[in-house]
Amino acid sequence: xxxxxxxxxxxxxxxxxxxxxxxxxxxxxxxxxxxxxxxxxxxxxxxxxxxxxxxxxxxxxxxxxxxxxxxxxxxxxxxxxxxxxxxxxxxxxxxxxxxxxxxxxxxxxxxxxxxxxxxxxxxxxxxxxxxxxxxxxxxxxxxxxxxxxxxxxxxxxxxxxxxxxxxxxxxxxxxxxxxxxxxxxxxxxxxxxxxxxxxxxxxxxxxxxxxxxxxxxxxxxxxxxxxxxxxxxxxxxxxxxxxxxxxxxxxxxxxxxxxxxxxxxxxxxxxxxxxxxxxxxxxxxxxxxxxxxxxxxxxxxxxxxxxxxxxxxxxxxxxxxxxxxxxxxxxxxxxxxxxxxxxxxxxxxxxxxxxxxxxxxxxxxxxxxxxxxxxxxxxxxxxxxxxxxxxxxxxxxxxxxxxxxxxxxx
Length: 410
Ligand code: CTP
Hints:
Helix content: 25-40%
Bound molecules: cytidine-5'-triphosphate
CATH architecture of the largest domain: 3-Layer(aba) Sandwich
Distance between the termini: 36 Å
CATH superfamily of the largest domain: CoaB-like
Number of helices: 16
Shape: elongated
């Protein structure tokens, strides 16, 4: 993926043991197509050599405001101006407690803080990835600084929790490079769902026959997980109810794991009370054995299959679409349809049957487990085919499309 193609990031390092993660972050940004200009404080150079960062970024590292080298293609001895003007964002990772305190006061006694102060506010966003000991992080002074920096328009990312270099355990670790990358990619996405709550169901359900077997299907959950991730990127608060799948939880998303259709229905009904949007991508089993056996069902030696009685599972989507919030439009319901034949006709009939304003149809067998897909949007106007694309790109497009159709945020 080239998620950051065309973006120029100034990666600032202030002093902290988390500088070792900045090396991997630099590579990750470049792998996603960004160009990276590294700027280090004197303290950062105690933890990581500029040689390493130069090799990884493919550009000379700057650390002094007195540096007379050509910066940003200009020879005016003003690296703080030239380097900040060409940036799409300044990302300081790690941002130490001291560096944040300094920024808060608008101090500018080294190149990195000078650049942060001198950047054009409306054009070059500043993103901080804090990193410090847990006592430093929870200290009222740091928390006050974080709150004020946010109020000043700076994006201060979360911190991670866990073991710290000092041997203590708690909040304050810098996020891992992969998490930071996710946050930076998300940062550049339009915030079409800011302030909205989105509920997504994904994956198959598993309906037990006995303790060792059950009925399920080939849904991998990829499309639903991609939608949950895209909704988070678009600024929504996202809850993902997942059937049994092996996918990692998308960053920023609250995940609830369930197994059966009944469990998925219960979770979805409870969560839908708070949601503005419900996107049902799950391939819910239509039927479940009426009574799962307590013990493993054994062969009878005669070749007779065991008698099996099935009960229809509740339709989660139709149920929520018919709920008072669904009917009033307070809960905007989006269905999915996996078809094998007669896709457009089946999808239109399904949209009507489920009572949803929007249904997204795809060809089940060629979508299950794949990283790309072709979607057909079905609304009251008819069927709108979308060109084949990656599930990630389609998820973003769908999220934007849903956002466009929502009633204005109250
Ligand atoms: N769905 C649901 N609960 C069910 C069955 C389906 O919420 N018990 C949702 C799916 O998540 C999807 C949509 O309904 O958004 C359509 O699912 P699909 O399996 O394609 O349709 P079915 O209603 O099962 O119809 P059929 O099997 O006849 O195609």
